[in-house]
Amino acid sequence: MDYLHICCYNCPPAGLDDAGTKWLELLRPFTAVQALPVSEMFAGHLVLALENVTTETIVLLALDLFCLEGQPSSAVGNFVALRQLSGRPITIVDTLSKFAESLWSYPKEGESCTSCVW
């Protein structure tokens, strides 16, 4: 799976604040996801979960393009640093319009990503 979208319409995020462990468990199977937009309702929860990621628990290994709607890229500094150490660049954006623009120019299979930013 190249693309996964996490969003919620009219549903409360109840039960998802368990120190981020439920989020990490949810994301663990999606090892091949390359592009992931997360709606504003869940972005803050995911940011908190990613604060606790270590080299042993890192998730989303193939992720290249990440939208945390309404969250600054600095909010996932630890995750970005771990990605940098692993040699896997990642683009972080904070709006769905920036995500869509980046996704449109996203490299197709077999192309390399020469414009990825931190």
Give a structural overview.
The chain has 118 residues and is of the alpha/beta class. The protein has one domain. The protein contains 4 helices and 3 strands; from the N terminus they run αβαβαβα. It has helices spanning 21-27, 40-51, 77-85, 96-104, and strands at 35-38, 65-68, 91-93. The chain has a 3-stranded parallel sheet. Helix 1 (21-27) crosses helix 2 (40-51). The longest helix is centred in the middle third of the chain and has 12 residues, at 40-51. The relative contact order is 0.17. Residues 110-118 have low confidence and may be disordered.
The count of DSSP E runs of length 2 or more, i.e. the number of strands, is 3
Structural class call reads alpha/beta
Q: What characterizes the major β-sheet? A: 3 strands, parallel
**Measured on Cα atoms, how large is the radius of gyration?**
14 Å
Task: Output the strand order for the largest sheet.
Answer: 1-2-3
The topology string of helices and strands comes to: HEHEHEH
**Distance from first to last alpha carbon:** 23 Å
